[in-house]
Amino acid sequence: MMPTVSNEAPRKADGRPRIVVVADDKCDLALLSAEIEGRYGGAYNVLVQSSPGEALTSLEALRVLNHRVAVVVASQRMGEMSGSNLLSIAR
Length: 91
Fold this sequence. Notes:
The chain has a domain of 56 residues. Helices cover 40% and strands 20% of the residues. It contains three helices and four strands.
């Protein structure tokens, strides 16, 4: 079964926890998502976001739906906010 990489918070649970990948640089985002999907896509649903704001909105939606998030991987240098700031808010 081919894992799904999505840029939207899943509406229907497939049972797998999520890995959320956030980067505002298209090249970084493509590289991170491809690497993480390739290594962990069978066990995790990979959610790709191109901005910290989108990621926080998706994380809140996942929390409301009681979907598990295993890890958030964020680029440190993003225009909207730093990766460490995003992670501290998401926590």
